[in-house]
Amino acid sequence: MQYSLRILFSTLFVMACSTVAFSTIRVVDNNPANGNSYRTLQLALNASSAHDTIYMVGSQNNYGGGSVDIPIHIFGPGFLLTENPDSQARPLGAYVSTLYFRNSSTKSTVCGIYVYTLLDISVDSVEISRCYISSWDYNTISINCNQVTIKQCYLYRSYPYSSSYVLLQITRGNVLLLNNNIENRDVIPVAINMQTSAGPLEAYNNIITGNAVVYNGNFMNNVIRLGRWSGNSNTFFNNVCDSTQCPTGNGNLQLVNMSTVFNDTGTTENKLRLRIGSPAIGAGWGGTDCGIFGGPNQYIIAGLPPIPTITSFSGPAQGGTTSGLPVNIRARVRP
């Protein structure tokens, strides 16, 4: 009898994650040769009860879309893992095409996955953290509810043709944005678009690239790299801007040359670190740094979830009933 190293690795992933105290744990895994019952996200959602946990194993194949109708907790392995070789022993992300939160899915959480077409939130009290969210053809994120938190995420659009799509569309409700990279590189780059009745919007320690239409917002410790801003009933404290998106006073810095702010070398995420002598260092409220690596909710490289992570794994490809399967594992937990 022989044991598959891939199956063992998936088992160890679940064992490492099982320290998180939720209800039933379901594993979504569509890797070849793994006989998992849940090979799409929706299959696991259909089988779940309120407050169950779903762990998505990294794969080269996407997991399709998901519609969440009950409170659920979804974890993935993180993103941009090949750029960060010390992040996961198996550097594959978990990809979801669309993700909808509807009906009774309030108090759901998602952490550490890719969403690459549409994230639609229509119920209150949903938290999205440490995810990579991107699309070409739709408003990437649509929010029409209250008490939504998006933190430590990498939000990105880059459509090479003219379009009217928005990276973050807020139709209704109060939203909290913490330590996100919010970047729209479309020909018409709308990063944030709010309806006049939406809000309040609380945005702290983000990097924002693109145009914005914002109402009833409180912006603090952000770096605004690019874009035309409009709206009203907003307050701005200790932001760094490339133009005059923020008013003078209250610690705001206008007309800052962005080439002096960021590192702009290395990996996708390390380019967002502040360079030595950056005007954003210590420019935030209370002397904290502006941008995603400042404040109490600092951005986590590779979107690694706050659960045990297997960082190295070595052993033979196969073992037997006599010899067993000797392996060496190293794991650690990020905050």
Percent range of helical residues:
under 10%
For the report, how would you describe the main beta sheet? Answer: 14 strands, parallel
What amount of the residues lies in strands? 35-45%
Element-by-element helix/strand order: EHEHEEEEEEEEEEEEEEEEEEEEEEEEEE
Report the principal-axis shape. Answer: globular
Number of helices: 2
How would you state the average pLDDT, rounded? 89
Number of strands: 28
The residue ranges in which pLDDT falls below 50 over 5 or more consecutive positions are 1-12
Radius of gyration (Å): 21 Å
**Separation, N- and C-terminal Cα atoms:** 40 Å
Structural class: mainly beta
Describe the 3D structure.
By secondary structure, this protein is mainly β. It has two helices and 28 strands. It has helices at about 5-15, 40-45, and strands spanning about 1-5, 25-30, 50-55, 65-70, 70-75, 95-100, 110, 115-120, 125-130, 130-135, 140-145, 150, 155, 165-170, 175-180, 180-185, 190-195, 200-205, 205-210, 210-215, 215-220, 225, 230, 235, 240, 310-315, 320, 330-335. Strands 4, 6, 8, 10, 11, 13, 14, 16, 17, 19, 20, 22, 23 and 25 form a 14-stranded parallel β-sheet that branches. The chain has a ten-stranded parallel β-sheet with strand order 2-3-5-7-9-12-15-18-21-24, covered by helices on one side. Helix 2 links the parallel strand 2 and strand 3 (about 50-55). It is globular, with a radius of gyration of 21 Å. The two termini are about 40 Å apart.
